[in-house]
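Message: Just now I want nothing more than another pair of eyes on a protein record. I am handing you a single protein, as its sequence and its fold in token form. As I understand it, each token names a local backbone shape. Take your time, and here it is.
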Amino acid sequence: MMSKAIKTTQRYKQGIEKITVTDATFAQSSECVIEPTWINFFYGNNGSGKTTISRTIRDGVQSGTGLAWSDGEQPGSYVPVVYNQDFVRNELQFTEGNDPILPGVLMLGTEDIEKQRKVEKLTADAVGLDAEIDQTKKKMGDNASADTKNKAEFQKACEKAGKRYKAILGGGGDFRSWDKCVARVRVTTGVSREFDDLSRQHAIAFDPNIREYRPFTKLGFSRIQVAKGYELLDTPIVSSGNPTFVAAVKRLGERAFDWFADGHKYFEPHADGKCPYCQQSLKSPLKDVQREIAACFDSAYQDAVDLLVRFRADYINDVNGFIGVLDGNLQLDLLPKFDITEYRDKVAVFRKTIEINIQHIADKIKEPSSVVVVEDTQALREELNAIIDRYNEQVTANNDIHKVYPQKQKDCERMFWELLAFELSEEKTAYLDEEAHIVGVSKTLSDTLDTQRKARVALQSDIDRKTADLGASTKATAIIVNGLLAKSGFRGFSLKPHRTVPDRFCVCRDNSTEPAENLSEGERNFIAFIYFYHLTRGGWHQKDIKKNKIVVIDDPVSSMDSGVLFIVGSLVRELIEDCFCDGKERNIKQIFVLTHNPYFHKAVSHKYETNQEELIQKSAFYSVKKSESNISTVRICEEETTANEIDILNVSPVKNSYDALWCEYRDAQLPTTLLSVIRRIIEYHFLQLCSYGIDHLRITVKKFIGDSEREQKLADEMLRYIYDDLHDLGDGIYFTPDSETTDYKMVFGKIFDAMGQEAHYKKMSAETNE
């Protein structure tokens, strides 16, 4: 056996593809989306939300918004023809006490068929041209999107590169928005510069405390290395006297001369020919020793020591000059934006270095035979001079800017923009090239659209001229409507031309020419529906008679008797058949029938309760309900089946009015609602169909329940409510339920048990599927 092919489309689509109902009681509904086919039947109680659905369709077709349309469909090619109470009250002006005016309906006569064909050909051309215009608009939209994307990419590049510029220039001027930034960059010629250098100039130019500053004095050259005595620092100074004695002292070590020198310095002035230790007279050879010691420190030795002393004085004088310069710089009014820390640290190092050098020279003088090294300060002086140069450069820049700072402020801003434009040169080139391409395409498309629109205006003018010749006289309205009224048995009134308004009609009784007054609701509704039925063949306006129609019929049998209901049902079936045949005579492409009357619902829809594929593919059933919380829902009614190739079956929401009561019974959530439904079921089933008396029913149920006071009380609430209502014996007190719905349903089932109808209750309450 071959497997069944999978169907991609179950129901046909045409016109409206999706309806989303969001008004009134559907505002918070989670089930408010309808995906209609050609023929759509809706069933729901009064107040469930059907009229809201009809208004949503009407308003959506008229405005072209709020509805989703099938692929390739043009909302402007459809006209809504809607029957509901709005149509009765407003469109036909059935207002009590006023003169009811019914507009005439334009119809196509036999002689207009050829003209209509020409109009249809022109209309088809217009549709094709509209499609071309839409395509051109789409291309323009795509081109505009490309322009937006191009601008966005360049703006993004400007934002990324411009953040540090905006931080310096602030958020004013052309940095108020990135759009202005883009506009400024695109007209600015890029120039390469150093950002940090420009930032410093900007900071100076915009410093509110800007003034002139004195530069630092640089350090000159040192004379120390060419001063006399410098060469003695690394040379031991010793005596050149008695070789024998000197040799003896040298054997004691080089530093022995320093020891002898210190001793001699203190001994010579105070000896007076005596030994400093024992005070004995120095006689030969001790005097000879004294002479030998004195001879060790000859004039050459002393001259060298004296030269060292003078060298120290020269060195101190030299470095004090440097220190004076360095300290003097710090006494100036310093440039605030220059970090002077490095300079101070370097001066401290320089000062420490010369202190150490002076100490080394002192050590040399104290011990002439020693060797010392004085650290050269030239490198430190060069480093300090380098810092001084940097400071002086900034001082010079500051002073130069101070002289012309108003102009410098403008120059700094201009140079920043030139630098930003330079950084964005590649992105700017790409942006301008793409912009030029987009502008060219836009010009071409704009010219094309202008040509197409002119052609469309000329075509529409031709359509309007030919359409003006269409449409038989609206006098046919009265003839056709009166004929339908006569066939329906309504002979007490008819449509006649209005006394003063051309092509308008009014309802008159008998042979009177005066407008009829005090029409009943049923009469108004029936006249309105007959008029509506005639309207589906034509239109009130010439521009509408050639358009496809979306027909909506909302509860047309309100306040009508069964005979009129039969006539209306027949007319509605005729409209449905026209839609089934894809608008063969009336151009009805989609139809929606909404009602709360189960008999009318069955009369117009029973043909589509079938497993025939073609009927199911063109029709659908929907259930409209409103919950206890005042929220409406709409659901499609279908079942899976194997009886056809599309695997679905239409299911009517109700079979008859009795079924409808049990549907309400199963859905009821509040005790008050449930008791109302129970009353109607008991009244219809037991009192009308089974012909039980209410007293007999109460006695039988009471015996069956027995001694359970609670169940007796619940049963009495149900039956007494009916008894009082039927015989008007109540005292005006309404019973307020004080039990749960489950309790009421349990006792309600016992009422059927008491009457021997347990199986019927289980079936209708869905407790069993039998």
Q: What stands out?
A: Residues 283 and 524 are 170 Å apart (CA to CA).
